[in-house]
Structure formats: structure tokens, C-alpha cells
Amino acid sequence: MKSVHKGIFILLIAMVVIVTSGVFFKSFQTGSEASVPQPSPPAPQQERAPETSVPEPEPPLPPEPEPPPDGAVIDHPLPEDPILTNGPWASAHFLMDEYACDCAGYCDGWPAAMDPELLEKVETLRCYFDQPIIITSGVRCERRNAEVGGIPNSWHLSGHAADLYCPGVPYDEVARAARELGLGVIEYPDQQFDHVEIWSQKV
């Protein structure tokens, strides 16, 4: 009887050892797998939108200049009045040099003498407005006359004409006053100046 009990006891011990060994082995296997880092599945790639180049906006074109309306005035700085420089005076407010040819040295500045009557009337015009009048062109040599687009028989060539403006005074008012003084006048609205001449000298 004792030997039977002993056999059963040994059999139970063997079964416990087997079961315990199996459980231990199984847990060891699971722990090993858990400790090995598993590769994470790749993140789904997002499709990139095709890059489109945005064209640079073109700079706006500057507005085209409009022709000045009648009654407009030239806004230029005024010279000293009278202009204090050396040289002979054409009249009380004008130096002779103001009427000289402004070419680039093609002549000595005086291809012809200025008409005294013209000088007198321009001085009277200056006194009428009681403010400076600017001479932009007096006598011209033929080469200078061609450069500025003057007509072939321009009276500038013989000293019988001058181009001028009065700062702050509309060109048409200057033209009206010049006509009242007996001067011939051609108005240049786009450039805001007047051409004055002595008609009596025409042949």
C-alpha cells in the first residue's frame, strides 16, 4: 500500500514539475517577443499637390500725361529779379545774354542783333505783369534753329522773335497782353509758352 501511495506521489510531483516548466517556458517566450521592438507600419504617404508658380503681377503703367488745360500756368522757380549778372542790359529788367543763341558753341551767340523794338515791347510786357518774364529762346543760328525744329525762315534767325513765359500767369493771358502791345503771338498750349515777334519787320 505504501508503495502505491509513493508511486502516486511521485507521479503528482512529476506532473507539477512538467506543468510548471511549461508555464514558465511559455511566459519566457512571450516576454522575449514583447521585448523585441516590432516595426511600426509605414505611415500612409500624403499625396503632394503639384507646385504651381504664381506669376508676378506686372507693375501698373504710369498714366499718360494729359495736355494742360487753357489757363494752366508753368510752375518753375523764379530767378532773382532783376537777374544780377555781369553784362550789358537789353532793357531795365533783361540782360542781353538772355536773348543770346543757346547753341552748343556753333556760333558766338549773336548770329544777328536783336530788334530794339522787340526788346522794348518785351520790357513793356514785363512791366504790365509786374513780375519776371523768362526768355527761353531769343536769336538763333541756323544750326540751333534746325535742332529745335524751327521753320527755315524763322524770325529767331534775324533777332525779331523771342519765346517766353511768365511764371504763375497762364500762357493765354500773356499772349493776350502781348497782342495788345502790338506783338505777333503764336501760342504753344502743350508747352505753356508764347512766341512773340515783330510783324512789321516781315518782307
TrEMBL record:
It holds the Pfam family Peptidase_M15_3. The chain crosses the membrane at residues 7-25. Keywords: Carboxypeptidase, Hydrolase, Membrane, Protease, Transmembrane, Transmembrane helix. Gene3D superfamilies: 3.30.1380.10. One of its GO terms (molecular function) is carboxypeptidase activity. Residues 31-80 are annotated as: Disordered. Residues 93-183 form the Peptidase M15A C-terminal domain. The keyword Phosphoprotein does not apply. Residues 56-70 have a biased composition (Pro residues). This is D-Ala-D-Ala carboxypeptidase family metallohydrolase. It comes from Eubacterium limosum. The lineage of its organism: Bacteria, Bacillati, Bacillota, Clostridia, Eubacteriales.
